[in-house]
Amino acid sequence: MGDRMGMSVLSDAGVAREDRFDWFCEAVSSDVMPIMLSTRHTADFRARITDLDLGVVRLSSVACSSVLSRRTAAHVRRGDPENLQLALVTQGSFRISQRGTDSVIAGGLVLTDTSRPSAGVCAGGRIESIVLQIPRPALGLRPDRVDRLLARSLAADVGSGAVFADFLKTLLTHGPRCGPEELRGMGSIALDLATACLAQQLGDLGEAPAEVRAQEALRRIHRFVENNLGDPALTPQAIADRHNMSLRALHALFADQPLSIAAHIREGRLERARADLARGELSDQPVQAIAARWGFSSATAFSRAFREAYGTTPTEHRASAPAAPATPDDAGC
Asked: If you ran DSSP here, which 8-state letter would residue 177 be given?
């Protein structure tokens, strides 16, 4: 097992040949979901699993010898991440059954639901796939409509399906060299593309369900806020102007959210400032300078907001932050 930036890698390279399949079964059941797996290739089984954390969604790549999978109602009760899995089969072919639908996928996309029983089998030798794990509440499409697509073969060579498939491949290749904030942004884009792809399959782009448009608008605004927290001119009115909507419409968009748009901006700025105050390499910078970097024009207002949010002052938080570990140069090595 190894890590490269935001990507974790599980490989059978260090596992004894006779233990590889058992290792794979345990890895899938513990890291993904409980499931029963079987294979005719126990003696020469090979597998590699990579995982990239994208914030709102997760991207995984699985390459393994031919396996048969079965997830029963008992498995669902034992553990359910409550995800939709939108998978791109990049090598081999895979037969999947769920909710009365049975399809063979080769080079295309397929959507499955971890909350429902399913069965699958590789229809040949080695199988490789890229899987986007999407929390059900994050997908801005009505569940009853999404259910129509489960276990159906979805095209990945034309239209939005092709755009989505190419994005997954590119993200898997270059994502590990992106920073955490970049990866979260890429996760939002992946979710938008997945939504557009599935909406296209449903024929919903024309009628554009109101909840889909609202979710897409919220994601765009959240990304805009994330990228502009340091701008003191970032206000609800500026955001409404930037997104061609009235201030009233913006407030209505956030009416069902945990925070109002103004509170969301304030929380984001406070979190960034709080993180910077704990960074040892910034210990020589005045608290006011860090506050200003994240859009607080008044040191007094920043200190008051910080205390209300965290129960301590910025100076006290900085003093209580753990010291950064010494580097070899610091230790005189």
From this structure: G
